[in-house]
Amino acid sequence: MKDPEPQEALAPSRNSRKIHIPAGLWTKCPSCSELLYTKELIENHKVCKRCGYHFPMTAWERVGLLLDPGSFVEDPKGLLSCDPLQFHAATSYQERLAYYRKTTGLEEAVICGVGRIEGKRVAFASMDFGFLGGSMGSVVGEKITRLIERADREELPLVIVAASGGARMYEGILSLMQMAKTAGALARYSRKRLPYISVLTNPTMAGVLASFASLGDVLLAEPQAMIGFAGTRVIREAAGQELPKGFQTAEFLKDHGLVDRIVPRQELRETLAKLLDYLVPGCRSRT
């Protein structure tokens, strides 16, 4: 019989060092559980290389993804939400706004301005779900409305990237009024017969979908994006029946006519450029 190893041999060496792995070096995919090298994930536009899951992007990351480098000029800026209802719970509305301004670096849940897509000048807005769930309050509605009105004046095509849980409850009816305001601005804009391309990302829900997000001349969506008005549980209980498989996914809505095309993130910039070429051939040469 072989003698057992001495206990000393099993003990760790005094010279051995614990390997320290920096936080954030790896990211686990919530869809397929693949462990992804964060740097490679970012280089792949935050899309899982194994299953194609689209991780959330910030509003400024969308600007970098879709617009020509250095072409975007933000406008309007400096619009900040107040607290018309004096909303107070565990934390006040103003405290929540201050927290999200600090953590996201944004003034509000949307950034708007004018930039270029492969040389084509466009009015562009991108929502950020990281700011209070991308909810639409008075300032979000006002910024989007001003962008639409600028696109109308300057005869620019319009691209809006939506990512939102819906209307902002902290502002009550004032938040819901933004649905009518943005829709009205789009109705006036449509008289110029200029294209409005709406990009639906995960999630695009409730008051945002029921207003400007669903009013595009062309509706694009990212794969597997959750798109709908009310939550699945609410609809199931109201309808009193089980819902179809994949209900409220981009794929389901494309099959049923709401979404025109599902575009993987890596192809979105090229797709927008081609659509602009088809719909507004002369926009490349405009200053």
Automatic annotation (TrEMBL):
Entry superkingdom: Bacteria
Gene Ontology MF annotations: acetyl-CoA carboxylase activity; ATP binding; carboxyl- or carbamoyltransferase activity; zinc ion binding
A single BP term in Gene Ontology: malonyl-CoA biosynthetic process
Sequence ranges assigned to domain CoA carboxyltransferase N-terminal in this UniProt record: 25-287
Catalytic activity: N(6)-carboxybiotinyl-L-lysyl-[protein] + acetyl-CoA = N(6)-biotinyl-L-lysyl-[protein] + malonyl-CoA
Protein name (Swiss-Prot/TrEMBL): Acetyl-coenzyme A carboxylase carboxyl transferase subunit beta
Record-linked SUPFAM superfamilies: ClpP/crotonase
Keywords: ATP-binding, Cytoplasm, Fatty acid biosynthesis, Fatty acid metabolism, Lipid biosynthesis, Lipid metabolism, Metal-binding, Nucleotide-binding, Transferase, Zinc, Zinc-finger
Annotated zinc fingers (C4-type), start-end: 29-51
Family per similarity comment: Belongs to the AccD/PCCB family.
Protein source organism: Candidatus Methylacidithermus pantelleriae
Entries under InterPro entries matching the protein: AcCoA_carboxyl_beta, Acetyl_CoA_COase_Trfase_b_su, ClpP/crotonase-like_dom_sf, COA_CT_N, Znf-ACC
Cofactor binding: number and manner: Binds 1 zinc ion per subunit.
Gene Ontology CC annotations of this record: acetyl-CoA carboxylase complex
UniProt cofactor(s): Zn(2+)
Function: Component of the acetyl coenzyme A carboxylase (ACC) complex. Biotin carboxylase (BC) catalyzes the carboxylation of biotin on its carrier protein (BCCP) and then the CO(2) group is transferred by the transcarboxylase to acetyl-CoA to form malonyl-CoA.
EC number from the UniProt entry: 2.1.3.15
Membrane as UniProt keyword: no
Known pathway: Lipid metabolism; malonyl-CoA biosynthesis; malonyl-CoA from acetyl-CoA: step 1/1
Residue spans crossing the bilayer: none
Compartments in which it is found: Cytoplasm
Complexes and interactors: Acetyl-CoA carboxylase is a heterohexamer composed of biotin carboxyl carrier protein (AccB), biotin carboxylase (AccC) and two subunits each of ACCase subunit alpha (AccA) and ACCase subunit beta (AccD).
Enzyme class: transferase
Binding sites annotated in the UniProt record for Zn(2+): C29, C32, C48, C51
